[in-house]
Amino acid sequence: MDIRIDNLENMRAVCMEHIGPYNEIGPVFGKLWSFTKENSIPVDDQKWLGVYWDDPSLVPTDKLRSEACVTVCSKTEVPDIEGLTIRTLEGGKYAIGTYVGPYSGLGNAWGEFDAAIKKMDTKPRESPCFELYVKGGDDSIPEDEWITELCIPVE
């Protein structure tokens, strides 16, 4: 896995909550996509992210908190509905690991990434980890070519 340290900008995002196993967040992205289309929220050139709030080694699987998110510009208005949040994802210094392959391999990729980060001279900071979906997630691209960036905030 290719790992780098980079500075990211703040990102304003529309987020839809998910409680439960992280690997079951997929349908929430479908709901978020439908919501953006039904409400004419422009997201075609935006970033899609999965935000993960809890450490799965410390929190029971059925209590894990995550969000399916899509970035929006500052002028975008979003209807107020339950389970939907508009938030600014904090920018700053991040360890970023590039994973290529199907989403089913992300759990193992996070394990490999976490182990590599622990060997580096970095220290995590208080902010959620997230996945940035760079390429893939649809039928036009083979799964083995999908690109996901795993992002851990560091000091």
Protein model, in words:
It contains two helices and eight strands; from the N terminus they run ββαββββαββ. It is an alpha+beta fold and 155 residues long. It has a single domain (2-153), classed as Regulatory factor, effector binding domain (Multidrug-efflux Transporter 1 Regulator Bmrr, Chain A). 24% of the residues are buried. The mean pLDDT is 92.
Features:
155 residues, alpha+beta, Multidrug-efflux Transporter 1 Regulator Bmrr, Chain A, eight-stranded antiparallel beta sheet, 8 strands
Order of helices and strands: EEHEEEEHEE
CATH architecture, please?
Alpha-Beta Barrel
Give unreliable regions as ranges. Answer: none
**Average predicted confidence as pLDDT:** 92
Distance between the termini: 21 Å
Counting structural domains, the number is: 1
Tell me the strand order in the biggest sheet.
1-6-8-7-3-4-2-5
Helix content: 10-25%
Strands, count? 8
CATH superfamily: Regulatory factor, effector binding domain
Helix count from the secondary structure assignment: 2
Query: Major sheet: size, sense and barrel closure?
Result: 8 strands, antiparallel
CATH level 1 class label: Alpha Beta
* Radius of gyration, whole Å: 15 Å
Basic shape: globular
